[in-house]
Write a structure and sequence with these properties.
Residues 127-191 form the HTH luxR-type domain. The protein has 191 residues and is α/β, with parallel strands linked by helices. It has eleven helices and four strands. Helix content is 54%, strand content 9%.
Length: 191
């Protein structure tokens, strides 16, 4: 985090740092900003993964542009991030100059994809088209189910009713043509 903040010109940008999603949300509530640069993996009790955090930011701070940094190359997750309105996706292995370019692009409202993500997104593999049919909420439920959480635990973590979680799980299973909980868990662990 510290090295990234030094790459942003301090005379034109005010930068804040947050080590948890909750701290990030508090900062956004206290002092609105134009751009959030975040890691995809910054889990916490309230935000089990990057999709949950990005979804929350999109709902509550729709004007904020998002630059997400990650090493993950799962096309389904990358597509979900783009669907959520992430302005820029940056590979963590990118050089400093690419980070600066991505920040400029995000602030100007342009998209930026690291070249490695562009390749991944352009080459669908077997099954990805089916997987992309899942809604973000269904995807969250499947991922948590794959972590061996019960419906009650998932409901508590996502602040939804058990009935809603059950419906979203069933819907995901139907869309994926999965017949059993063990198949769903195996699918969820594959991404």
């Amino acid at each position: 985090r510290i090295s990234l903040s030094t790459l942003i010109n301090p005379t034109t940008c005010i930068t804040h740092e947050a080590s948890t999603p909750e701290t990030l949300i508090q900062l956004l509530e206290k002092e609105p900003c134009d751009l959030v640069v975040t890691d995809f993996f910054m889990p916490s009790e309230n935000f089990p993964d990057g999709l949950a955090l990005i979804s929350y930011i999109r709902r509550n701070f729709p004007h904020v542009k998002l630059l997400v940094m990650t090493m993950m190359k799962n096309p389904m997750i990358l597509r979900q991030l783009l669907k959520l309105g992430v302005t820029c996706l940056l590979d963590k292995h990118s050089p400093a100059e690419e980070f600066k370019s991505a920040v400029r692009a995000a602030i100007q409202g342009r998209c930026h994809l690291s070249p490695s993500f562009g390749l991944v997104l352009r080459s669908p593999k077997k099954g990805e088209i089916i997987n992309s049919k899942l809604s973000i909420k269904e995807l969250e439920v499947v991922r948590l189910f794959a972590q061996d959480l019960s419906g009650r635990e998932i409901a508590r973590r996502l602040n939804r009713s058990e009935k809603t979680i059950s419906r979203q799980k069933r819907s995901a299973m139907n869309k994926l043509d999965i017949q059993s909980n063990s198949q769903l868990a195996a699918f969820g662990q594959s991404f």
